[in-house]
Design brief:
Blueprint: H1 43-56, E1 73-79, E2 82-88, E3 92-95, H2 106-119, H3 127-132, E4 147-150, H4 154-166, E5 171-173, E6 179-181, E7 197-199, H5 225-229, H6 235-251, H7 268-279, H8 284-293, E8 302-303, E9 309-310, H9 313-317, H10 349-360, H11 373-377
Antiparallel strand pairs: 1-2, 3-4, 4-7, 5-6, 8-9
Helix pairs in contact: 2-6
Length: 389
């Protein structure tokens, strides 16, 4: 891409992109510019690189390998405040979150979720077990804005470059000439439907060959009960995460809503209340497990979003949530007349019933009762090609 353009780049005085992240420091970023060559021949990047290398050295013939985004190269550059690890990726289109109407068809959503399940397919001889073999399989923070779709044609990127020569991206410059460019997430209408989704952002992935995990993970609206209760999580938490994500993708809205309190913090009581309305009360065995796990401590202690130091999930999420008899404390928050069947509007009749049965295999209170990705791939709902949608 040429370093010059026909039109001067538009400047903004407002913070953009990574500058809006809490505790942002420009020293943590290396400022680069269009047309600049970075390489002739940070802890998060190092971790993502390790995970990516483990994936890349695995059985690449496994179908699921095609749907996890890994770097094609990496290198280090010297910045004014130290070294930076650079990961090089193939250019991609928008995320599913940012996708336009032409990506929001029933067919595309269904195909996408099939590929996601393939990527976390796990048994002793498959890609995930032998290659990735880490808890949450890159899905600690699996959500629609962590799933990209590939470019259906090189012409999409070529036209984008030409457009930038005429109307460059907005940029923000600080007093020390550190420049941040506004990200681009609109590449126009699809030119071909031969596109594939890829799961991105592996920096939060965890290798599975270690002790049980109890620290908080997952985006709020996708968080599984065992994470909230601090009773230890594993691959089955991914299945819950995927179940909620699939519902959100199909219905084009969130299954769990209004999960923030008046101060803007995650309201766990409201989340649990909606879970109970949809799926009934959790089994007593899970609540007994939660009480026994309170003696397990985070090492070191971690701060919750309110700035409080916490030694376990009970403190982190603001328990208690249930009394000694297993009754939910905030019953007044449980929505009345909320039923999971009523939340599904995309399908009707037999197809709706198949979808509800499919999702119910993932959205189980007890982790051990959730279906595996292998079993889900054989579900009737995912048998594509029998009829058009």
């Amino acid at each position: 891409m040429a370093a010059t353009s026909c039109t001067p780049p538009p400047m903004t005085y407002e913070a953009i992109d990574e500058e809006t992240i809490p505790n942002y420091s420009p020293n943590d970023y290396h400022s680069t510019h269009p047309g600049q060559v970075l390489n002739d021949n940070t802890a998060a990047a190092e971790h993502e690189l390790k995970v990516s290398q483990r994936i890349s050295t695995a059985n690449s013939s496994h179908l699921g390998a095609s749907y996890i985004r890994v770097p094609i190269d990496n290198f280090q550059i010297d910045g004014s405040h130290g070294k930076h690890i650079c990961l090089v990726y193939q250019p991609m289109r928008e995320t599913l979150y940012d996708s336009g109407a032409d990506l929001r068809t029933s067919d595309f959503r269904r195909i996408s979720l099939s590929f996601m399940l393939l990527s976390c397919y796990k048994d002793s001889t498959t890609f995930i077990q032998s290659a990735i073999s880490f808890i949450q399989a890159s899905f600690q923070y699996l959500k629609d804005d962590n799933i990209l779709v590939n470019l259906e044609s090189e012409s999409v990127l070529e036209d984008f470059i030409q457009q930038q020569r005429q109307i460059p991206l907005r940029q923000h410059a600080t007093n020390d000439d550190h420049i941040t460019y506004l990200s681009q997430c609109d590449f126009g209408p699809l030119r071909d439907y031969f596109i594939l989704p890829e799961i991105a952002d592996l920096d939060m992935a965890q290798f599975g060959d270690g002790p049980i995990r109890i620290h908080p993970v997952q985006p709020h609206r996708y968080r599984a009960l065992e994470v909230i209760l601090g009773t230890g999580w594993s691959y089955s938490a991914d299945i819950w995460n995927i179940g909620v994500l699939i519902w959100n993708m199909m219905e084009d809205k969130d299954l769990f809503t209004n999960l923030k309190d008046e101060q803007g913090h995650y309201n766990v009581h409201a989340h649990l209340a909606q879970m109970i309305a949809l799926f009934g009360p959790p089994p007593k065995v899970l609540l007994e497990r939660e009480r026994s796990f309170r003696k397990w401590s985070f090492i070191p202690e971690i701060q919750n979003p309110k700035g409080q130091s916490c030694r376990n999930a009970f403190q982190y999420f603001g328990g208690p949530f249930f009394d000694d008899n297993g009754e939910f404390i905030r019953k007044n928050l449980i929505p009345q007349h909320l039923r999971i069947a009523d939340t599904v509007t995309l399908f009707q009749g037999e197809e709706k019933q198949q979808f509800l049965e499919f999702v119910s295999k993932m959205l189980q209170w007890q982790p051990e009762n959730r279906s595996t990705a292998k079993d889900l791939l054989e579900d009737p709902f995912l048998q594509l090609g029998d009829e058009a949608h």
